[in-house]
Structure formats: structure tokens, C-alpha cells
Amino acid sequence: MTVRRAVFLVHLYGGLAAGAFLVVAALSGGLLAFAPDYDHWLHPGLWRVTPRRARLAEADVASIAARTGATAGPVPRIARVDLGGDAQAQVFTLESGERIWVDPWTGRVLGTRLRPEAWERWVETLFQLHVRLLAGNAGQMAVDAASAAGVLLTLAGLVLWWRAKRVTVRRDASFRLAVWDLHNAVGALAFAPGMALALTGLLMAWEAPLEWLTHSPAQRIERPPRSAAPADGAPSTDASLDAIVRAADLALPGATTFRIVWPSGPRSSYRVMRRGPGRSGVSSVFVDRYDARVLRVDDARRETRASRAHALAEDLHTGDVLGAPTRALAAVASLAVAFLAATGAILWAQRAVRPRRRPLVQSRPGS
């Protein structure tokens, strides 16, 4: 058996074994690539705002959101707020789960949502299908094994393609040859993004290879720091939300705040989540709720190499590196993986049921 024959058999039977899992993971992943954009597309009126000369104070915007809450009794407590750009509304999530969209320039409430909509529940189901096949830990193990097979299949496919290097479909080709040419062409064009999807999915699932590659431990999960208790007789009043944001800005300049998580108890602290500095990773600034003192800065640039590599793998896998263009590339690459699995199955079925045209033993002239 030649090396090429062995690679072909690995590609063939590996594809047959993992093909169905790869199709499910690829199609669901292609749909999930644009998950952050679906609400913007379906309800643009909730998100789009017109920038004006001056923004309201963040504390005033939060107060408007809290007063808008539909929960009976005292003023509802805010759990977090998601911040957008200048042309995007702020989304406040209350402890009851209610969400409120507020224009940060005018204070106008753009809409509320008491519970997740049907499409949001569908996206969550799609995510569970993508990572666990809706089958818990057993499904997750199957997806991880399929990701490993995807890396192997991609490399084997490149070896098989290298001899002919075909990226076109012959005009006079039969159906079988046309499928063969399409399989080769799409596989070649989608090699780099397809390999990136399979490899990053594998590295996200198994941290041990990341630790080995980077020669560093994975990130340790530390408990959030606690706010200092007010002195005896001192009022237990929270610091201004604007003071909290300013403290985070000074503690980690060059980053952009995208979420603020409210304290969950009297001794809890504010968590200001910021993207950057840099293209990958999420930093956090923990601020004392009473005096706006910075308690700890978790700078993404100072995390372990394994942790930074995991963040980069996640951004590459989801297509969040450059926003919409890379999300579109991730979606197209996912569809290409599903197409390759489908055309590979077609080629195998034709090979299995179609008799060979040439006899196994060639007769010699004159025999």
C-alpha cells in the first residue's frame, strides 16, 4: 500500500465516521456566527439611536431603566448593563430578567422585554446542538472527537489535492466528475478557514494542548474582590456610577467598556468589563461599590499565554476578530465544511454502488 493510498483511506473512512457530526456542527456553527446580529436585524428600532451633542450621565440612564422596570414593589435592582457605540442603545438587565433598552443621549426608553423571545430560545438550542448535540457530556465528547477528525481530514485532503491542484470544474464532466471537481475546489479554497475552525474548536475544548504549546498554565479562576464595609455610622450609599466608570477608565486606559455588572450583595464590587487593549481578550476592573476605589485589574494582556491563546482561539472560532467581515468568513467556511462532508458522502456512495468499468486484471494483447 502506498502512502497516498493510506492517506486516501484515512480521508475516506474518517469522513464517513465523522461526516454526520461535522455537518451538524458546521451548519449550526454557520448560523451561530451571526447570533450577535440577529436582534439588531429583527428589531432595529430597539438598538439604533442618533448621537447628539452630549450624553446623559450614566447614573441618570441607569435610574431611568430602574424606574421603567415592571417588577412590583420597590425600585427593581439592575444586574448589568451592556454598552454599545455612540449609535447604539444601552441594554439594562434587571435581577428579574427583564431587559430595557434606553437611548443614552435622550433617556428615552426604546423598548422592554420581560422574557426571552422565541428566536432567542432557538439560538440557545442551536448553541447546545453545536457544542453538545443536545446530548450532554456524551454529545460534547462526540463533537470534540469530530473536531479532531476535522483537523486530520483537512490535512489528508490537502495531501490528496496537491497532485492535481484542481480548483475548477470541467465543463464536459459527468455528474460524478463534477462532484469530484467541486469537492476538490471547495476543499482547497476553504482549507485555511476550515482548518482554523476545526483547530480552534479543538483547542477550546481541550486546554491541555494549549498549555503544552504555550508552556504555561491555564487561567486560574479567582473570586471577585469584596468591597470594604462602611465605617460604623457611615451611610452605605453606592458611589456614583459615573465615578465607577471613570475609575475603570483610569485603571485600564486604551480599552472600551462594553458591560458593567452590578454588585450582588452588600460586600460585592462592581465589575467593569472592557475589550482591549489589543484585538483579543476581555479585561475586568473591579471597583469598590461605596468609594469607587479600584480593587483589582484583570488585564487580558497580563494573563498566562495559555489564557491569551484560548481567548484568541475563541475569537477566531466565532469570527469576532474583525467583526462582521470575519463572522461572514466563519459562516461561509462552516457551510463549506458541510458541503465537503455531503459531497464526500455522495462520492463514496457512487463508488460503493457503481461497478468498476475496468476489469481487475487486464488481459495482454494476443492472449
Q: Rg to the nearest angstrom?
A: 27 Å
Q: What is the CA-CA span between the terminal residues? A: 29 Å
Give me the count of strands: 8
Apparent shape? elongated
The secondary structure category is alpha+beta
Q: Describe the biggest sheet?
A: 8 strands, antiparallel
Structure report:
The chain has 367 residues and is α+β, with helices and mostly antiparallel strands. The protein contains twelve helices and eight strands. An eight-stranded antiparallel sheet has the order 4-3-2-1-5-6-7-8. The longest helix has 30 residues. The two termini are 29 Å apart. 28% of the residues are buried. About 2% of the residues have low confidence.
Protein topology:
Blueprint: H1 3-32, H2 35-42, H3 44-47, H4 58-68, E1 78-82, E2 90-94, E3 99-102, E4 109-113, H5 118-132, H6 136-162, H7 175-189, H8 191-205, H9 207-214, H10 241-251, E5 256-261, E6 269-275, E7 282-288, E8 294-298, H11 305-318, H12 324-353
Antiparallel strand pairs: 1-2, 1-5, 2-3, 3-4, 5-6, 6-7, 7-8
Please give a handful of descriptors for the protein shown.
367 residues, alpha+beta, 8 strands, elongated
Briefly, what is this?
This protein has 367 residues and is of the alpha+beta class. It is 51% helix and 12% strand.
